[in-house]
Specification:
Length: 185
């Protein structure tokens, strides 16, 4: 089952055990089943020894349901949520190195201000701009900067969180780590 780029994007979050090999097992599941990860972000959560992963995948509702079911089957995955319904906050961080000289610097700074971005490094012939926002905002800024000469772009990928208390640890019972039963026990 291959996910095409013409399909809608879905954002899936997962609470996983924070230990070596988890990312490999999860990415291997995606690879084996032919799912493409458009974006992936991983970081520590508010719960000790657990991390949160945010995946952006492309596919129809049935495909995304299959992805979440397959994630649930993995031993290191505690909880999976599809937060694509729009009732979530999602952000991406990007660093953009753009060519800048004495003549273009002030125009670039005006564009940066309009996007509420920040200049985080100044060199004689370039600027590094930090922008945070949804994917459209990051794309729009990057497109406007192309005429100056975008030299390098680094994007974190999307992170997402349900609005309100729906997905918070306080609104849920503490997850118990799952363990495989060893044969003979």
């Amino acid at each position: 089952m291959t996910i095409t780029t013409e399909s809608p994007r879905h954002t899936i979050t997962a609470l996983v055990e924070d230990k070596p090999g988890v990312l490999n097992r999860i990415s291997s599941m995606f690879r084996r089943r032919g799912y493409n990860i458009a974006s992936l972000a991983v970081g520590h959560s508010e719960i000790e020894n657990l991390s949160r992963m945010t995946f952006v995948v492309e596919g129809d509702v049935a495909t995304v349901e299959q992805v979440t079911k397959n994630l649930h089957k993995l031993i290191d995955v505690i909880k999976v949520s599809d937060v694509s319904d729009g009732n979530c906050v999602s952000r991406e961080l990007a660093l953009v190195r753009v060519r800048a000289n004495v003549q273009t610097r002030s125009e670039i700074m005006q564009i940066v201000d309009i996007f509420r971005a920040n200049i985080v490094d100044v060199a004689p012939d370039s600027l590094i701009i930090e922008v945070t926002g949804d994917e459209d905002k990051v794309d729009s800024l990057q497109n406007l900067l192309r005429s100056f000469g975008v030299l390098e772009v680094m994007r974190t990928g999307t992170i997402a969180m349900d609005r309100g208390m729906d997905g918070s640890a306080e609104s849920q019972p503490a997850p118990a780590p799952r363990h495989r039963m060893e044969s003979g026990l």
